[in-house]
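Issue 218. Parser rejects a valid record. Input:
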Amino acid sequence: MLEGSDRRSIGRSNKVARLVLLHPRRFRELIACLGHENPVVRMRAADAAEKISAKKPRLLDRHKRELLGLLAEAEQIELRWHLAAMIPRLRLTPAERRRAAVAVHSYLEDRSSIVKTFALQALSDLAENDANLRPKAKQLLEEALQSGTPAMRARARHLLKKYPF
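Output the parser choked on:
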């Protein structure tokens, strides 16, 4: 259902998301697709998993180790931005949260403005639950206001209002 040749299209990922929401046991199959050899399948699986996790974040919990590993290793732009959205939804220990923050921080060097913008959001979301991460998150948001892409500046303005670090 996730195959295709056009990375500009989400294909049937919305249909997959609806199916998995009805049958949550199939979520593990979707997570397995995040490592698929076909980048279109990876991208569409990430899109569906992110949409599902927005509604049922606890489905991510069984896959925490794998997702944290992917976060640090992923190179595909679409996979990176979806992982950045999902990781803060996990129940993380302080050590895992710091590890995730380090990985997401590296996304700020990505060539994609979307990845950078999602990284800012993820860092802010992680800092919400960890006072040790707040000073750096605030600094990064302030830097994004000054030198980020238009999307990063808009997100930074929003986040600084939402999270008065």
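Fixed in the parser; the record now loads. The longest helix spans residues 39-55.
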